[in-house]
Design a protein that fits this description.
By secondary structure, the chain is mainly alpha-helical. It has one domain. The protein has ten helices and two strands, in the order H-E-E-H-H-H-H-H-H-H-H-H. It has helices at residues 2-27, 48-83, 93-104, 108-111, 118-125, 139-149, 157-160, 165-177, 183-187, 192-218; strands at 32-35, 41-44. Strands 1-2 form a two-stranded antiparallel sheet. Helix 1 (2-27) packs antiparallel against helix 10 (192-218), helix 2 (48-83) runs antiparallel to helix 5 (118-125) and helix 2 runs parallel beside helix 10 (192-218). The longest helix has 36 residues, at 48-83. The radius of gyration is 22 Å and the shape is elongated. The chain starts with a helix and ends in a 12-residue tail after the last helix. The mean pLDDT is 91.
């Protein structure tokens, strides 16, 4: 999880930097200098239509942060199971179901060479990182994942609004990705102040979810306590 947290902090800083820059352009504390044919620079204000496009791009950056963070976090759970040499029999029933579903989706030809000790290797051999999400991550899905794996999805609502803005981000990202709306259409609906608030809440929500997963791994809450595991 340390690697996941480091990657998250790096990506979150990238998002922060973008929004700080965009806020400066919109509020004209950051200026655009455009060279004319003679090589002389003229200060120009940000075109309002371009501002809408740049705000829409912010939703793409935020969704990228959300999906990459959750993908890395789930992968970290499977990495921990592998590093601790946890066997299938030791897992809590809910995670056994996840492994069995992963197995159902895999071709034997693809995974048989990765399996030496079936009770241990079947867990990570059947895991496929790239199939976890596809433009569908919001707080509801994260809650469902938390229930399946057994980690907490609770966050401090005064700081995170329980992740409700993830739905706004997901919808805008998908509208842009599928051409349902133009960048200008998506960008016109929020002010830069509203976007900054959404950004802060989402980053804090993800940070707290990652801390929950770290606690889950530290306490080995993936184990089936009814089998006598520590």
């Amino acid at each position: 999880m340390n690697t996941v947290l480091l990657d998250f902090n790096t990506r979150a800083q990238e998002v922060d930097d973008y929004f700080i820059f965009l806020h400066g352009l919109i509020k004209q504390t950051t200026k655009l200098a455009v060279a004319d044919s003679a090589g002389q620079y003229q200060i120009q204000s940000l075109n309002p239509e371009l501002a809408k496009t740049l705000k829409a791009i912010g939703f793409l950056l935020l969704y990228n942060l959300v999906e990459s963070t959750m993908r890395n976090a789930i992968e970290a759970i499977f990495d921990e199971l592998k590093n601790q040499a946890i066997s299938f029999d030791q897992l809590k029933p809910e995670i056994k179901m996840i492994v069995l579903q992963n197995l159902k989706n895999r071709s034997p030809k693809k995974i048989h060479l990765q399996i030496n000790q079936i009770s241990i290797d079947i867990i990570t051999a059947t895991f496929e990182r790239e199939e976890l999400f596809s433009g569908n991550v919001d707080a509801r899905l994260i809650k469902e994942i938390a229930e399946k794996y057994g980690f907490s999805c609770k966050t401090e609502p005064t700081k995170t609004k329980d992740g409700q803005n993830l739905l706004v981000i997901k919808r805008n990202r998908n509208d842009l990705a599928h051409g349902v709306k133009s960048f200008e259409e998506v960008g016109r609906d929020q002010t830069i102040e509203e976007l900054l608030e959404i950004k802060e809440e989402v980053i804090e929500y993800l940070r707290q979810i990652l801390e929950n997963i770290k606690t889950y791994l530290d306490n080995q809450e993936y184990l089936d306590v009814t089998t006598g595991n520590p």
